[in-house]
Structure formats: structure tokens, C-alpha cells
Write a structure and sequence with these properties.
Layout lengths: L18 H19 L3 H5 L5 E6 L3 E6 H25 L3 H30 L7 H4 L1 H27 L1 H22 L5 H15 L5 H7 L1 H18 L4 H12 L7 H9 L1 H20 L6 E3 L2 E5 L4 E6 L6 H7 L4 E3 L10 E6 L8 E9 L5 E8 L6 E6 L7 E4 L12 H12 L8 E5 L6 E7 L5 E10 L15 E3 L5 E5 L3 E3 L8
Parallel strand pairs: 3-15, 4-16
Antiparallel strand pairs: 1-2, 4-5, 5-7, 6-7, 8-9, 9-13, 10-12, 10-14, 11-13, 14-16, 14-17
Length: about 500
């Protein structure tokens, strides 16, 4: 996904495609096909095993089960406990200093995050759109250097306040707590925190050994930080560069003892550092203002409400560009739309009514399952052959399970089973008005069978909306997009609503 300015845009063309990425996708697809072709899929579907996995240098994939991830997190915590006990033998009062050092380190990171976010916002003020993405490497290098220098200064002050051992162990304690919390809530993310911690803790335990060995033990922290920061820069683009900069500063705490000479220099050269930082910030601000912006993405949808027989122009863009503003006029409504199942605000304006075939919902059956739930079976169809059909239950009934074409949906784990339902649905915006929603893609021309189970026995109301690419026609006087503007996500589309399907209450059951 590097080259984010073309992602889901009309400029996502073969000319802007990295053929190496295409080859890489093909290699994975072929390997997956060969692997699963030789598996017992029935047995595989019954497997509930969850694994942690990450790659080393893009050469080998390391994988192990969740229980091992939690064991490694406890190992990191145990190594920190050993260091704590060792310090306590030398100084009976050191425990309080270690805790205060850890809290001071975390507090410094919080202040640093606000500082870097504000500094990044100040530098990028007035930058053209996408400039932050094209300048993200330089912006990250600057913010990370500021963050590391500021944290080194903080560590130097902590040493004077808490002593050398406590100021070095405090950040490790913070890392250990975060590693244990991650192991409990999202084991798949533990490599980011646990392996750097284990290496740094071993380096502290062997601090009287060879300096080369200690540096080698810090390698997981260096490699892990480098890989995660690169990934964050690619995934976040230029919108949150400070997040990667804060993490790199967080990793500095693992090498607090080794960075003591640098911390001393940071204090002695504070004025020079401040002057150099101000000059670099000014240079970056000018570079971003001179950056050439790629084509701006925009999208417009024609919506036909088959119930009221009215047409609408709709846009889910955050702001209207020149092309979309032609459809929506000078003062379009910007609000949620229950008619078109929009969970986020849409720009809306009136349009001519084009008589388009509406999607159809047909009740096939409803009955009580052996488990005492109510199963409703419906047929979903798009007479105009739309690419996707959105179906939702509008009365607020809870749905505990559903099947499409007799198959349940695959359960995909993205973070962990515990966080999936909350974090992913929140991030993706899945679900409309907190109700049950399902998006069906490539529905057969004769329709698809959708069934769901609910404990509700009263009347239900099912609604649908089908979506297809393109527009019915452009209004008179609308100019096409200029070269500086392209089609953005979700693209120009036609939306048509269905007549609601009202499912009567289940006979013989209390309402």
C-alpha cells in the first residue's frame, strides 16, 4: 500500500502499479491455493487455533500459538522482576524510585506525544493535500530526532533524581506492563513489545559482560522499532507521522543505560539543538508548501428512493470538490440519511427521478429452531444486477447468527477474538444505527437466500439498498472532472432502495 495517494482512487491504474507487488500477490495466491487444496477443509474449519506471526527481514515467517505469546510476555516481566530484585539488594529503598521512574517515563511520553503532534501540525499548516504523504520520511526523521533528543534529556534528569539503576529500570517496567496487557487483550500484537523488552532486559542483566554482547541483545529493539515505524508510515501516510515518532522515542527507554553519554550531550548542547530544530522545522514547512499535489479524489452517487419515487445526489466525501459541487449546489444538506442507511453524514441534494428497478426482498419462511430462536429466511435479489446489496433490520431486533446461501460467514480474527467485535467494527464503521446489517456482493441473478436467527418474536422490518457503479446520466451543464481531480472511494455509484419487507410476528408467541 505504499503510494497511498493512488489507493482506491481513479489513478489506481496499471501505469501506477508496482509490478513487483502484483507478482508478490500472485505468489501468495498460488501458495495459498496449493496449501488449502491439500487440506481437509472440514477439519480446518473446525479448528479454533489462533497464532501470532511476524516475518524476519521478509525471508522467514515466525509463528507460535497465543499461549506461547502470553508465556513470552511473562518471561519479559520475570526478567524485569530479576533486575528489580538485584537493585533491591543494592539499595533497600530503590523500589519506590523504580515505580516513580516508570511513571515519570510514561508521563514524559504523554507530554512528548502532545509536543510532537503540535509541532507536526504547525509545520504542515498550509501544506497542500497529500504533501504530508509525499514528505512523510523527512517529517518523521525530524519529529523522531526531536523526540529522541527530548527523551534523552528527560532520562538524564531522571538519573539525577532517581539514580542510574532506577532510571534505567523504570522504562523497562513500563514496557513489561504494556507487554502483559497486550498479551491479555491482543496477543497478536505482542511481538512489537515483548521481544524488544526481553533483549533489553537481558542486556541489563549482563551489563558487566562484553559491550558487544549487550549491543547485540538490543538488536530486537532496533529491528522491531525500524520495521514498525516503517509500517506505520506506509499505513498512516502523512496524517499521523508523530505516532511513529513517539513509538521510536518510547523504544529509546529500552537503552536508557547505553544512551547516558548522549543524554549528557543533549543537556550541554541544548541551545544548539533548539536552534537546529527551529531551522529544520522552517525548512520542512517551506518544502511542504512547494510540494505538488496529486489528483484529488471525489465521488458522487445517484440515489433513487423507490418508496417516495424521488431522486437524490449524494456524496460521502469529507468535503465537496469542484466536480461534486456541481451536482449538490451551493448549500447542500450535510447529515445522516436513514433512507440510504448512512451511518456517517452525507452531502445531499435533489435530483431528477429516474425509474430504476428496486431490489426485492421476499419472505420464504420463518420458524422456531430447536434452540428456541426464531429463524427468518428471505430471498434477496437485484433485478438490475447491481454489484452489491445492503440489507438491514430497521426495528432494532438483535440477530445472533446468519447464513447466506446456507453458509455462515467466516470468522476472521484481526486483533484478537476479544477485541474484534469492538475495535474492528468501530474502525470500519460496520453496522448502521447499531442495528444488524449485512452487505451481500455478487448476488446471483435469480437471488440469494439469506437466513438469520433472532430471539425477537415480534414484527420485523427488513430494508435493502443495492449499489452499482456509474451514473445514470450527467445533469445538463455539468463539466467532467479536470486533470487535477479523479474518482475517489467509493466511486461514482447508483443506489436504489427497496420497498420494506415487514415480517409478521411469530404466531403463537408472546409479543
Amino acid at each position: 500500500i505504499d503510494g497511498l495517494e493512488h489507493y482506491h482512487q481513479g489513478t489506481d491504474t496499471p501505469q501506477n502499479l508496482d509490478l513487483r507487488s502484483l507478482e508478490h500477490h500472485g505468489q501468495h495466491a498460488l501458495a495459498f491455493a496449493r496449501h488449502f487444496a491439500n487440506q481437509d477443509l472440514d477439519q480446518l474449519s473446525r479448528s479454533t487455533k489462533s497464532s501470532v506471526f511476524f516475518d524476519l527481514f521478509g525471508v522467514v515467517v515466525v509463528t507460535y500459538p497465543y499461549w506461547a505469546a502470553r508465556a513470552f510476555a511473562l518471561l519479559g516481566l520475570s526478567l524485569v522482576a530479576l533486575l528489580w530484585a538485584e537493585c533491591k539488594r543494592e539499595d533497600a529503598l530503590v523500589s519506590g524510585k523504580i515505580v516513580r521512574s516508570a511513571l515519570s517515563f510514561v508521563g514524559s511520553l504523554g507530554v512528548l506525544a502532545l509536543l510532537l503532534a503540535g509541532l507536526g501540525a504547525l509545520i504542515t499548516l498550509g501544506w497542500p493535500r497529500w504533501a504530508a504523504s509525499t514528505q512523510r520520511a523527512a517529517l518523521f526523521a525530524y519529529l523522531a530526532s526531536v523526540g529522541v533528543a527530548a527523551l534523552c534529556l528527560t532520562l538524564s534528569l531522571q538519573k539525577r533524581r532517581f539514580g542510574a539503576r532506577a532510571s534505567a529500570l523504570g522504562p523497562l517496567l513500563a514496557w513489561a506492563c504494556l507487554g502483559v496487557a497486550t498479551a491479555a487483550l491482543a496477543p497478536g500484537a505482542t511481538p512489537v513489545f515483548v521481544w524488544p523488552l526481553i533483549g533489553a532486559a537481558l542486556s541489563q542483566l549482563l551489563r558487566r559482560r562484553s559491550p558487544l554482547l549487550r549491543l547485540l541483545l538490543l538488536a530486537p529493539a532496533v529491528l522491531g522499532t525500524t520495521q514498525l515505524c516503517y509500517t506505520l508510515l506506509v499505513v498512516l501516510g502523512g496524517q499521523a507521522v508523530f505516532v511513529a515518532a513517539v513509538y521510536s522515542s518510547f523504544a529509546v527507554g529500552l537503552a536508557a543505560a547505553e544512551l547516558e553519554p548522549l543524554a549528557q550531550r543533549a543537556r550541554s548542547g541544548l541551545r544548539v539543538w533548539l536552534a537546529a530544530s527551529a531551522l529544520a522545522a522552517l525548512t520542512l514547512a517551506i518544502m511542504g508548501r512547494l510540494a505538488t499535489s496529486p489528483a484529488t479524489g471525489s465521488s458522487i452517487a445517484y440515489g433513487f428512493d423507490s418508496r417516495s419515487r424521488r431522486g437524490f445526489w449524494l456524496s460521502s466525501d469529507h468535503r465537496l470538490e469542484r466536480f461534486t459541487a456541481q451536482f449538490l449546489g451551493d448549500s447542500p444538506v450535510h447529515a445522516q440519511s436513514a433512507t440510504f442507511a448512512a451511518s456517517t453524514p452525507l452531502f445531499q441534494g435533489p435530483a431528477a427521478a429516474f425509474e430504476l428497478p428496486a431490489p426485492q426482498l421476499e419472505l420464504v419462511s420463518q420458524a422456531t429452531t430447536p434452540q428456541g430462536l426464531r429463524e427468518v429466511v428471505i430471498r434477496v435479489q437485484s433485478p438490475r444486477g447491481a454489484r452489491a446489496i445492503l440489507v438491514w433490520e430497521a426495528s432494532g431486533a438483535s440477530v445472533v447468527a446468519f447464513r447466506y446461501q446456507s453458509q455462515p460467514p467466516l470468522q476472521l480474527v484481526r486483533f484478537s477474538e476479544e477485541l474484534d467485535a469492538k475495535l474492528f467494527r468501530l474502525a470500519a464503521g460496520v453496522g448502521y444505527s447499531n442495528g444488524w446489517t449485512v452487505l451481500l456482493v455478487a448476488v446471483p441473478s435469480e437471488g440469494g437466500i439469506l437466513s438469520f436467527e433472532t430471539p425477537n418474536t415480534g414484527a420485523l422490518e427488513l430494508q435493502a439498498l443495492d449499489k452499482s457503479e456509474g451514473l445514470p446520466q450527467l445533469p445538463p451543464g455539468v463539466a467532467p472532472r479536470r486533470d487535477s481531480e479523479t474518482v475517489g472511494p467509493p466511486g461514482d455509484q447508483i443506489w436504489v432502495t427497496a420497498h420494506p419487507l415487514r415480517v409478521p410476528a411469530l404466531p403463537g408467541k408472546p409479543q
